[in-house]
Amino acid sequence: MIDHIAHLTSRALIRVSGTDAKPFLHNLLTQDVETIADGEVRFGAMLSPPGRLLFDLFLWGEADGVVLDVAADRRAALIQRLSMYKLRAQVEIAADERPALASWPGVAAGFVVDPRTSAMGGRAIGDHVPDATEADHDAHRLSVGVPDPAADAGSDRTYPIEANFDLLNGIDFQKGCFVGQETTSRMKRRGEIKKRMLPLTFDGAAPAAGTEVLNGALRAGEVLTGRDGAAMALVRLDRLDGPLMVEGRPVAVLYPEWMTPLSQG
């Protein structure tokens, strides 16, 4: 099967360099940054102090720093927030104008495995010739059942575990402190996970964002983003038994292959 490549115009890069770059980011982000190797990519996030998701990130290790892959419309806000935390740290923070790319269903030459799940294919930054669109890649993402936090979560509304960061290698629970760590660790430790983002399937066009998912008269969740036949929804895990409806249409929740039965709750 031929691997497709798409330039992800919805993503943009920030380069954080300098002698303190990795420890500086390590103390802020959900991912272990200090051990990231040159050319390695990891998935993580920056949270608000109360533990809600602000920025989802791919982190690329470089010899003298880290490149952050963030939602393009949030790049300026992330640069501003990093600069606020900088204080006396010896770091330089600057926009990087190289493109971010994805390949699928496999890992194309010059790409590395997507750190969330190999089912997503590969990631790269730099010069690669695309042969598909970002919309094509988004359809693949929905088929794999991986949320797009930048599109699905909204700003400061969602906890990272609700967006499945704990199941997609986006949180290192062994690394120690990071911004929002207390709430995140408590949710995981106590099992206080009442909602998760899960894919829906249905016939016809996608419902509008915010449309309710109903289990009888009970609200079971809401649609986030989607396309014909598939959507991502934030659903209550205790209200998924029984027939689910959206706008009078039956829908089904699909548990992705990367989400084991043990981790569904």
From TrEMBL:
Residues 194-260 form the CAF17 C-terminal domain. Pfam families: Beta-barrel_CAF17_C. Keywords: Transit peptide. One of its GO terms (biological process) is iron-sulfur cluster assembly. Gene3D superfamilies: Probable tRNA modification gtpase trme, domain 1 (3.30.1360.120). It comes from the Bacteria. The keyword RNA-binding does not apply. InterPro entries: CAF17_C (IPR057460), TrmE/GcvT-like (IPR027266), YgfZ/GCV_T_CS (IPR017703), YgfZ/GcvT (IPR045179). PANTHER family: TRANSFERASE CAF17, MITOCHONDRIAL-RELATED (PTHR22602). This is Folate-binding protein YgfZ.
